[in-house]
Amino acid sequence: MSVDTDTVRKISRLARIQMSDAEIEALAPEFNKILGWIDQLGEVDTSGVEPMAAVVPNTLRLRDDVVTEGGDRDRVLANAPQAEHGFFAVPKVIE
Amino acid sequence: MSELTNLGVAEIRDGVKAGDFSAREVAEAHVEAVAAAKALNAFLVETPDHVLAAADAADQARAAGTLKPLSGVPIGMKDLFCTVGVQTTAASHILEGFTPTYESGVSQRLFDAGAGMLGKLNMDQFAMGSSNETSAFGNVISPWRRGGGDNAALAPGGSSGGSSAAIAARLCPAATGTDTGGSIRQPAAFTGISGIKPTYGRCSRWGTVAFASSLDQAGPMARSVRDCAIMLEAMAGLDPRDATSLDAPVPAWEQGLNADLKGKKVGIPREYRVESMPAEIDALWKRGAEWLQDAGAEIVDVSLPHTKYALPAYYIIAPAEASSNLARYDGVRYGQRELPDGANLQEMYAATRAAGFGPEVKRRIMIGTYVLSAGFYDAYYTQAQRVRALISRDFDEAFAKVDVLLTPTAPSAAFALGDKSDDPLAMYLNDVFTVPSSLAGLPAMSVPGGLDDAGLPLGLQIIGRAMDEQGVLNAGLALEQHAGFTARPDRWW
């Protein structure tokens, strides 16, 4: 499967990473090389095999439905690039 | 003073307890060694105040008879662990200036056990890399050099390259590492030290900057198997804040150390004999098998038929999880923001991420986004997860016959910086022996086995059953005792 520059551009938009045309041009062949190598997975017969996400058997724990932390607004905002009036500040979203 | 930096974790612990030296003296010797080793670029932040305060607390605890398991032990902290009040960047520009207001589960446990922190260790950016060349803050230089006057700067391995370099250079007796596909074991092998990745879930991931959540696992790196066992005991244990943290007792691994392997079976997986492997590594592997046989074990030939598919499966699963995890770096809540004039919110995200992430991180986010995108998800991601199940099944079948597996840790000794940095695929192939056990969540450790012709360390890997860190450590100890590895880099820095 060959990936063209338009696809790479689309992926960069989906990933929210701004890329110049030169970066896109450079990435397309790298992408193809890596994906070409990954394509060998298609050889493996996986019929009847369940996809594995959790590797070590574990149970999901439940905890009591009580507040464990909170009231930490200033700590939450401490590393924000821009915080105003106790909120994260972002560029205007609604025109 | 200088000999204090030659001591390991157990020796420092025992010496402080016996009163042979004070924790303060140990901490000062290490602070001095760190300050004098800038040429290695192993530390991103130095925290002498932290380690000296812990040392003073240790000396007081000795007087009061309340010493803790790691009282007086100075350690290095990989910069992937959030540390209160100390900048944590994952070696990426996008987190420059980020100063956590909370402590990671692993670092908290180490501090609770009495350890002091010398500083935050350089690494591959977001733990993505095998040479430490993807750090936004410069390469870590291995303290090792090839013999014969060859002064080429060598890779300390990655991603825990600051950890491996600092320990090999005697800047700290032990450090934290994290391992997603080999990031503890490969750098340990490259620098002639030991390191263990425990079973997935042993160490809390809470407060550790995430790369690939189903694979990420913290573990210790140190200069002996015993020191790894001591560190791991302090690091492991249930953390309710991490849903994948295992609710299992933490064994007394140090106490359980036993190099007598009588009655144990050691498997040699034939698929790990790759074509391009240097003869020296093959020879060391054979020697390792003889050492384990000498220790009483029976050597058994085993097969892990899906081994060759582990790397391609990993390079779908890890980037896919990374693309999802790293979506959080949006320039809103923490880290750097890039806001071009007149940019809207979406443009701010894209500009922030373009400016903040390094090329390898962008590459992996892009691959991950692609394999998860509509129309490709099943062909790539679901197939990779199915292959992951087959790889895990291979291990289950092998462990029905044997107790541990013996393999080389990496397919080569340390390479020179720049040798592989232009070819992502060549770099990925360095993880060929470490990735399969990561995919299966199994405990695995690297122990130095000897030197190659150029005088560089080579590592041997022990892989064990899930939850059987003891079996891994014991086989590692047998290798350590037989290898008698005492080589260390000559100081040039």
From TrEMBL, chain A:
Keywords: ATP-binding, Ligase, Nucleotide-binding, Protein biosynthesis. It catalyses: L-aspartyl-tRNA(Asn) + L-glutamine + ATP + H2O = L-asparaginyl-tRNA(Asn) + L-glutamate + ADP + phosphate + 2 H(+); L-glutamyl-tRNA(Gln) + L-glutamine + ATP + H2O = L-glutaminyl-tRNA(Gln) + L-glutamate + ADP + phosphate + H(+). It is an enzyme of class 6 (ligase). InterPro entries: Asp/Glu-ADT_sf_sub_c, GatC. Its EC number is 6.3.5.-. It comes from the Bacteria. The keyword ATP-binding applies. GO terms for molecular function: asparaginyl-tRNA synthase (glutamine-hydrolyzing) activity; glutaminyl-tRNA synthase (glutamine-hydrolyzing) activity. Heterotrimer of A, B and C subunits. HAMAP family: GatC (MF_00122). Belongs to the GatC family. Allows the formation of correctly charged Asn-tRNA(Asn) or Gln-tRNA(Gln) through the transamidation of misacylated Asp-tRNA(Asn) or Glu-tRNA(Gln) in organisms which lack either or both of asparaginyl-tRNA or glutaminyl-tRNA synthetases. The reaction takes place in the presence of glutamine and ATP through an activated phospho-Asp-tRNA(Asn) or phospho-Glu-tRNA(Gln). PANTHER family: GLUTAMYL-TRNA(GLN) AMIDOTRANSFERASE SUBUNIT C, MITOCHONDRIAL. This is Aspartyl/glutamyl-tRNA(Asn/Gln) amidotransferase subunit C. It comes from Sphingomonas jejuensis. The gene is gatC.
TrEMBL record, chain B:
Its EC number is 6.3.5.7. Gene3D superfamilies: Amidase signature (AS) domain. Pfam families: Amidase. It is an enzyme of class 6 (ligase). Residues 29-473 form the Amidase domain. The keyword Nucleus does not apply. It comes from the Bacteria. PANTHER family: GLUTAMYL-TRNA(GLN) AMIDOTRANSFERASE SUBUNIT A, TRANSAMIDASE. Allows the formation of correctly charged Gln-tRNA(Gln) through the transamidation of misacylated Glu-tRNA(Gln) in organisms which lack glutaminyl-tRNA synthetase. The reaction takes place in the presence of glutamine and ATP through an activated gamma-phospho-Glu-tRNA(Gln). Heterotrimer of A, B and C subunits. This is Glutamyl-tRNA(Gln) amidotransferase subunit A. It comes from Sphingomonas jejuensis. The lineage of its organism: Bacteria, Pseudomonadati, Pseudomonadota, Alphaproteobacteria, Sphingomonadales.
